[in-house]
Write a structure and sequence with these properties.
heterodimer, A: 330 residues, mainly alpha, 13 helices, 77% helix, globular, B: 293 residues, MetI-like fold, 12 helices
């Protein structure tokens, strides 16, 4: 188990290192000059220009040798200094992102966990039942092929505009101010529901198909046939098949995280939901490079942390990793 | 004589493959949908006299009618024109991005799987690292710093970030194939490693490579749509993701202009869905165990 975690943590540290390096490298080695771009664009606000210019010369430190620039980038990072947002001048990027993160967690965590659980159970249920299989499989493939934003747009249009029962913008009504009252909590849930459902549905399709295919595969394997030959009840055989199939699905979840996060970003754009995705759109439209870089780092950190959590859950599911046998090697 | 037997056997195999390929429903449906959209992408732009961004309809937004097949946008731009041009971008990104992703994945996978040892350890660790980094995050930070973004660069970057999936699959396949007897025989006959890979190993996993390309094709399309929707689409072309972005940005939802956002999303879903369907179909054709009886 120790070896398993050492290996995993090493990979994550290397990944983080690579990601930060990319984050540092891209502004410096891309063609064109982002600083001039940014400053000419915001030439209206003279006050901001002066501060920004000082800030850039200090932070990019283009007169310093490259390795020094790189080291100071890291030291700033550890002090939580990711620069100042232009779009929300003069708020620090870290603060801007920290305000957005709770919305992302509130949207992603339930959507990921619930769709994974529901998809797996449903897929296992649908496997080997002719009628369900014929209707669910095509539907599942269509759902995984659906771009997240399109499903979001369709849901917003149908439930928000045609039926008019759900709001389609913001995290809460602008007439309310955040308090711990029932009215406010219900309002927040009301706004949260559609983006959540659209994330849930797309993922659900993928997990259901994956589980269906895995269960069929497991039911064909020797141990299943052996159990059947011994006269074990059908439900017991299926239970064993499910326990074996859940492991690749868990690995699949870790590998899918990046795609799911990307889906959440565009879903937030559709519903003007104030998470990182929505922030990112504003940052891109205002060419707020520091905010873009900050969002990038936060997405990476979020995905790495979630990966680590999945690794821990994996140990709970797979006794082989606990016993020091090699279960999951990758 | 020997050669003769070999060719007839090959021919028989090919015939058997075609026999099952043409009878496979999933493959048929997928192919028909892809061909339909491909034809629309190639000939569609010639079927309309409007420019992509030109304000074709002076009265502004209209629902679909005989003049404007998919209606017009908030500004009176012809949605059909935008969608057929967007379809071209979709196919370019899919083929180019998917192709590059598959190619890099194959090269890294073969190298790691065939050579083994330290090089394999390094390449495998690298693959795992790139696999964990969310592709879209990298794409958007690159795109954000490019002033001029062409469809070509977008496709190249999508391909450059999408290969780890292929590399992993190809590596493990190569691993299991390289210890087979026919590969040993080739090695004993002093055949060069590159030739062994191309003439002994690759043909045995051709089905795998074709299917990887199809999945990469679909993945590249979805990635491009996400990137375009978030405002980092190509600056020299229009794409389906961009049409959807304009629709959301200019209040198509609030004004109920469904004809603006339904066609582009439907086209992406249909194309990617058709690719997945083809993939499952091909899997059944290549793998007799999965065939429906």
């Amino acid at each position: 188990m120790r070896k398993y975690f050492t290996r995993k943590i090493l990979i994550y540290l290397l990944t983080f290192f690579l990601a930060v390096t990319i984050d540092w490298m891209i502004p410096r080695f891309m063609p064109g000059d982002p600083i001039t771009n940014m400053l000419t664009r915001f030439s209206v606000n003279t006050n901001a220009i002066e501060v920004m210019h000082d800030y850039y010369t200090k932070n990019f430190g283009l007169d310093l040798p490259v390795w020094k620039q790189y080291l100071s980038f890291w030291s700033n990072l550890f002090q939580g200094d990711l620069g100042i947002s232009i779009y929300l001048f003069p708020k620090p990027v870290t603060e801007v992102i920290m305000n957005a993160v709770p919305y992302d967690v509130a949207l992603l965590l339930p959507a990921i966990v619930l769709s994974w659980l529901a998809g797996n159970h449903f897929g296992a249920f649908a496997a080997r039942s002719k009628w369900l299989d014929n209707t669910i499989s095509p539907l599942g493939y269509i759902l995984t092929a659906t771009p997240y934003m399109w499903l979001g747009i369709l849901l917003a249009w149908f439930f928000g505009i045609i039926l008019g029962i759900f709001p389609i913008a913001g995290a809460y009504s602008y007439s309310l101010s955040p308090t711990w009252s029932w009215q406010f909590v219900l309002d927040v849930l009301h706004h949260w529901f559609l983006p959540f459902v659209s994330l849930f549905i797309v993922q659900f399709g993928g997990w259901a198909i994956g589980m269906r295919n895995l269960i069929i595969y497991e039911l064909e394997s020797d141990y299943s046939h052996y159990l059947e030959a011994l006269g074990a009840p059908r439900s017991l055989v299926r239970k064993y098949a499910f326990n074996n199939a859940i492991l690749p699905q868990l690995t699949g979840l870790a590998l899918q995280l990046g795609v799911i996060v990307a889906g959440a970003l565009v879903t937030e754009v559709v519903f003007s939901y104030p998470g990182i995705g929505y922030l990112l759109l504003a940052a891109i439209q205002n060419q707020d490079y520091f905010l873009i870089q900050g969002c990038f780092l936060f997405i990476i950190i979020g995905v790495l942390l979630s990966n680590f959590i999945i690794d821990i859950v994996y140990v709970l599911f797979d006794p082989r990793t606990r016993k020091g046998m090699t279960g999951e090697t990758a | 004589m020997n050669d003769n037997i070999k060719t007839t056997k090959k021919e028989k195999n090919r015939n058997e493959f075609l026999y099952f390929a043409f009878r496979n429903r999933k493959l048929q449906i997928g192919l028909i949908i892809i061909l339909f959209f491909l034809i629309l992408a190639i000939f569609g732009p010639f079927m309309t006299d409007h420019k992509i961004y030109a304000y074709a309809n002076p009265t502004g937004p209209t629902p679909p009618n005989s003049e404007y097949w998919f209606g017009t946008t908030f500004f009176g731009q012809d949605v059909f024109t935008q969608v057929v041009h967007g379809l071209r971008s979709t196919f370019v990104v899919g083929i180019l991005g998917g192709g590059i992703g598959t190619l890099i994945g194959i090269i890294i996978g073969f190298t790691a799987g065939y050579t083994g040892g330290v090089l394999d350890e390094i390449l495998n660790a690298f693959t795992n690292i790139v696999l964990v980094i969310p592709t879209l995050a990298v794409l958007l930070i690159i795109a954000a710093y490019l002033d001029v973004r062409s469809l070509f660069t977008e496709s190249v970057f999508i391909g450059l970030t999408a290969w780890p999936w292929v590399a992993r699959a190809v590596r493990s396949q190569t691993f299991s194939l390289r210890s087979r007897e026919f590969v040993d025989l080739a090695r004993l006959s002093a055949v060069k490693p590159i030739k062994i890979i191309f003439s002994e190993i690759a043909p045995n996993m051709m089905s795998y490579l074709v299917m990887s390309f199809i999945l990469q094709f679909g993945g590249a399309i979805l990635n491009a749509a996400t990137l375009d929707f978030i405002g980092l689409g190509p600056t020299n072309a229009i794409s389906l993701g961009m049409v959807m972005q304009y629709a959301v940005q200019w209040g198509a939802l609030q004004f109920g202009m469904w004809w603006w956002f339904v066609p582009p999303g439907l086209a992406i879903t249909a194309i990617v869905g058709a690719l997945y369907s083809m993939n499952v179909g091909l899997d059944e054709v290549f793998n007799p165990k999965l065939r429906e009886t």
